[in-house]
Amino acid sequence: MFLLRLFKIIRIVFAFGLDEFILGHERVRGLERLVKLVLFWRRLDAPRAVRLRRAMEKLGPIFVKFGQVLSTRRDLLPADLADELARLQDRVPPFDSDLAAQIIQQSLGKMPEQLFRRFDTKPIASASVAQVHYAEMHDGRRVAVKVLRPGIRPIIEQDLALLGVMAWLVEKLFADGKRLKPREVVAEFDRYLHDELDLQREAANASQLRRNFLNSPMLLVPEVFWDYSSRDVMVLEWMDGTPISQIDKLRADGIDLKKLSRFGVEIFFTQVFRDGFFHADMHPGNIFVAADNRYIALDFGIVGSLADEDRRYLAINFLAFFQRDYKRVATAHIESGWVPKETRVADLEAAIRTVCEPIFDRPISEISLGQILLRLFETSRRFNVEIQPQLVLLQKTLLNIEGLGRQLDPELDLWQTAMPFLERWMNEQVGWRALLRQIKREAPYWAETLPALPRAIATLADPVRQDRLLEASERLAQVQRQRNEWLAVIAGLLTALLIVLAFVLR
């Protein structure tokens, strides 16, 4: 099955002319004429970005999802490709309602008609991983029943393995490969997809987000019905609202769009900096608006989380950026390790100023965060900035916020809306209050480890133990050398296979 899928992918690659992305590389450029000779019958009548999007759609839902994630990596893709991939839609035909009923019975022990007073067999939404049915509990409460698509796990595992091979080739073939960390990006995508395959985990994400925003005047999150949820089935409170994309209806219903746009910015910064836990799939299809002017969040399969250190450096960068303190932005990048230590602060400061200065004092209608990110990534190549995989979802979410802001209030001042929140958050992170919180958090650990500290120091000073550690380090280095030799052999074999396939496939 794996080889059949590989051959199908290669056939689609050549059918849509995607070989130009590979054959343009200097190491295999000599094959370009040969491929054109073998595939003389092929006619390519669309730009490369359109062909790439169509190929992703042809390859199936997993590649569509990966294309959506890839569209946010403007450090990895040219602008035309990123813009086109952003148009990918995760929509697939629903699966049979009898299969949905079987999955519910296998997961929850009863058929839908026993569990619910009403269960609509026709789904109200269908995507690559699951579909959603409307239902009513026996006590009259309305719910949404999400059912995992049957047979999806082996397909995903197969495609993820192939994406891993492709990422490895990109890392080996291209000069920017190691800096862009394509294998880490695929690993992150792997983790998000596996999270989506476990509806119990998605339910936990929804429960956490609901707890974070309980009684919030800005955001509604549906309640999880844990007794009716499993790995393959999830039951959530039904939420009535208007899709965020229906601007005319929102206006007709008396929704305050300016207030809503400000809420969007504050919700984003609250999730990122206060909680370190954020909804990372905030496209218009997953956001509704309630009659009381609050957002309704749906679909919690993809969430992001940030460590305390990441949040601190992000806040420093945002605040310095809003204050136009480009030197502090530059030094924060160096301190965090995102930029090599030997980088000259003045050079990095000048480059950041060139990108950012033109955008201030403008409404969001005249600003493209996507364009800013593109310019910043161009700068990152020059200064060998290491792309942080844990921030990819954050970037994707920020771009979604930009899109919502443009729809709801083109005059929204993103900077003025975000600045007070960030200043409050930073004030809580420094000073004596932050010190007391840190001492309180670490006190149990200190109580446990301090008494054992003298013994640990004595153990480390033991000459016999030091010799053993040195021997173990040498053995590890030898294993690493052998691994690198095998990787070189595998790379040669894969390259040879692709050359042979270029001859025989059409």
UniProtKB/TrEMBL annotation:
Membrane-spanning ranges: 486-505
A GO molecular-function descriptor: protein kinase activity
Domain ABC1 atypical kinase-like as annotated: residue spans: 87-332
Membrane topology: Single-pass membrane protein
Organism from which the protein derives: Chitinimonas taiwanensis DSM 18899
NCBIfam families: PRK04750.1, UbiB
Residues bound to ATP: 124-132, 146
UniProt similarity note: Belongs to the protein kinase superfamily. ADCK protein kinase family.
Keyword Transferase found: yes
Intracellular or extracellular location(s): Cell membrane
Pathway involvement of the protein, from the record: Cofactor biosynthesis; ubiquinone biosynthesis [regulation]
Protein name according to UniProt: Probable protein kinase UbiB
Swiss-Prot/TrEMBL keywords: ATP-binding, Cell inner membrane, Cell membrane, Kinase, Membrane, Nucleotide-binding, Transferase, Transmembrane, Transmembrane helix, Ubiquinone biosynthesis
BP term (GO), one: ubiquinone biosynthetic process
GO cellular component labels: plasma membrane
Enzyme Commission number(s) from the entry: 2.7.-.-
